[in-house]
Structure formats: structure tokens, C-alpha cells
């Protein structure tokens, strides 16, 4: 039977070509954990962005008469030792923690991608850049961050203000100590791509290195970069929370989830829920981001997507 006599074949021919991004979405949607993680992460983002504008209490308003109260209709998460609303401070702290996590992730992703592409594409740079990567991987992360913060905190705070200086310091410190895994992953993919036929064909017609990287290499390493981005957010949030929990983060009147944990230690016996709220926020946000990364890894891998 010819195609002209087969109406089903004619209909299939007239259908527009299906974009591979629809296949990616279908695979991502089939990962229940990634889908639930995405919904929860979007809810958290909307809450910390618009919540402080809609909630009637300010995170910095002090009311000594209402201090150390438990959950109530007026204060759903209770109040702290100065009578400040814990729910308002949770919203404000989430905005800061997520801003630090995302900004530090962008910096780490830029450094890791740059070093990984250069090391994988230019053979003469490979040894030097990979040895530098191994050196950073060998350094103990938390002590190194503590030293960086102790050395530069006062200078940056004096120049950019307490909040702005600490924000720049935290983002820079976390970013420059978190790029190594991305660099190694990107380097491995670039080494494999260099031997592919389309790259060899582009090189044979004299394509310059800059165009080769931007048009042929980078678009084909977006998959590991996107997965590293999601996992980098989780790592940055945990690192910022750990530093704030140690008292080396933002000032006391500038809440973050880690700072709220630090401030609640002395009231653990009296009000254990004050520790529970920021701890749950950190844990669930990191868990949702990890599930998103897991779903993206499966969706962007053509070997898994085709199953």
C-alpha cells in the first residue's frame, strides 16, 4: 500500500516535528520526586519573594512584651527572645539564604565551566588546570572558608556595609571553593566531544577555536552544567547555613536560616520549635533541589530518555 492510500501515514507526515525538549519534559515529569521537588521549590521561592510584602509583621520589629511566645494565630511560628515574629524572620531569612545559594552557584558554575572547557579543549592547559583543581579538592573546605571570612570580613563590611560586605564575602568564598566538581565533569565531556565527527568536520574547514567552543562544545555540555547548577544551589545553601550557625555569617539583625538556628540554640529546651522551623526549611529545600537535579540528570541523558 502506498502512502497516498494510507491516511494514517499522511497524517503522520503532516505532524510538526516534535522538539527534543518535549521529550526532556516528558522524562522529567515521569520522575515523581523531581516533579514534587520542583513544585515545593517554586512554592518556597514565591513565599520568600512575595511573603515579606504580604505578611503584616516586619522581621525586625521588636516587641518585648511578646517575647518567647509559642505558635499562635498572631504569630504562627511563635516569637524570639526580642519578640520578633519568627514566621516573618523565616521568610526574610529564606530570601537571603536562597539569594546566597543561587549567586554562589552562578559564580561556581562560571568558574567550573570555564576551567573545564579550557582544560578539555586545549591540551597544553590540561595538566596545569587539573593539578590546580586537584589542589582545591584536597583543601579542607570549612576551615578554608573560616580563614577567608576572618581575613576579609571587616574590610568588606567597612567598604560595603555589614549586610552588603558579608553577602559579597559569602558568595565569593562559597563560589571559589565549589567549582571543582563542575570543572572535572565538563572537562570529561569536552574530551569526548573533541573526537566526535561534527567537531572534526568543523575543525577541518578552519573553524576558529572561539567559535568551535561557543557553537559546538558548550551547547553539547549543557546537560552536566544544568545538573551541576541544581546541586550547587543545595551545596551553597548548606555551606551558608553552616557558617551562619557558627556565628560567622550575617549580623544578628539580618536573618538567614542558619542564623535563626544559631540564635535558637540557647532556647532549645524552652522552645524546641524555634530550631525545628529553620532546620525543616533547610532540609526540605535542599532535598527538593537534589530531586530536581536527579530528575534533570535522567531527563537530559538521551540513553535514559529513550527508554
UniProtKB/TrEMBL annotation:
Subcellular localization(s) per the UniProt record: Cell membrane
Membrane topology type: Multi-pass membrane protein
Statement: the UniProt record of this protein carries the keyword Cell membrane: yes
Keywords, sorted A to Z: Cell membrane, Membrane, Transmembrane, Transmembrane helix, Transport
GO CC term, one of those recorded: plasma membrane
Keyword Protein transport in record: no
Domain ABC transmembrane type-1: 94-293
GO BP: transmembrane transport
Pfam family, one: OppC_N
Stretches that traverse the bilayer: 34-55, 98-122, 134-152, 164-186, 217-238, 275-293
UniProt xrefs under SUPFAM superfamilies: MetI-like
Family designation: Belongs to the binding-protein-dependent transport system permease family.
Protein name: Peptide ABC transporter permease
Origin species: Litoreibacter roseus
Phylogenetic placement of the source organism: Bacteria, Pseudomonadati, Pseudomonadota, Alphaproteobacteria, Rhodobacterales
Amino acid at each position: 500500500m502506498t502512502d497516498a492510500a494510507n491516511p494514517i501515514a499522511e497524517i503522520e507526515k503532516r505532524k510538526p516535528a516534535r522538539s527534543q525538549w518535549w521529550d526532556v519534559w516528558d522524562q522529567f515529569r515521569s520522575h515523581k520526586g523531581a516533579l514534587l521537588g520542583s513544585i515545593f521549590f517554586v512554592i518556597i521561592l514565591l513565599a520568600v519573594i512575595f511573603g515579606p510584602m504580604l505578611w503584616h509583621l516586619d522581621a525586625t520589629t521588636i516587641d518585648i512584651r511578646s517575647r518567647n511566645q509559642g505558635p499562635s494565630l498572631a504569630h504562627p511560628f511563635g516569637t524570639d527572645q526580642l519578640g520578633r515574629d519568627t514566621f516573618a524572620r523565616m521568610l526574610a531569612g529564606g530570601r537571603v539564604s536562597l539569594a546566597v545559594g543561587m549567586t554562589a552557584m552562578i559564580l561556581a558554575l562560571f568558574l567550573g565551566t570555564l576551567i573545564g572547557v579550557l582544560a578539555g579543549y586545549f591540551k597544553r592547559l590540561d595538566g596545569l588546570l587539573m593539578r590546580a583543581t586537584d589542589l582545591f579538592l584536597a583543601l579542607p573546605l570549612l576551615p578554608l572558608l573560616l580563614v577567608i571570612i576572618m581575613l576579609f570580613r571587616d574590610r568588606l563590611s567597612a567598604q560595603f556595609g555589614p549586610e552588603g560586605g558579608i553577602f559579597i564575602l559569602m558568595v565569593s568564598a562559597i563560589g571559589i571553593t565549589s567549582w571543582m566538581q563542575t570543572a572535572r565533569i565538563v572537562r570529561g565531556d569536552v574530551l569526548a566531544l573533541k573526537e566526535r565527527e561534527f567537531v572534526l568536520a568543523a575543525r577541518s574547514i578552519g573553524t576558529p577555536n572561539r567559535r568551535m567552543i561557543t557553537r559546538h562544545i558548550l551547547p553539547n555540555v549543557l546537560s552536566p552544567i544544568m545538573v551541576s547548577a541544581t546541586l550547587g544551589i543545595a551545596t551553597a545553601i548548606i555551606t551558608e547555613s553552616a557558617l551562619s550557625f557558627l556565628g560567622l555569617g550575617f549580623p544578628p539583625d539580618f536573618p538567614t536560616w542558619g542564623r535563626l538556628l544559631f540564635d535558637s540554640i540557647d532556647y532549645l529546651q524552652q522552645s524546641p520549635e524555634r530550631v525545628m522551623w529553620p532546620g525543616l526549611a533547610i532540609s526540605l529545600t535542599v532535598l527538593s533541589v537534589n530531586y530536581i537535579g536527579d530528575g534533570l540528570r535522567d531527563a537530559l541523558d538521551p540513553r535514559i530518555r529513550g527508554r
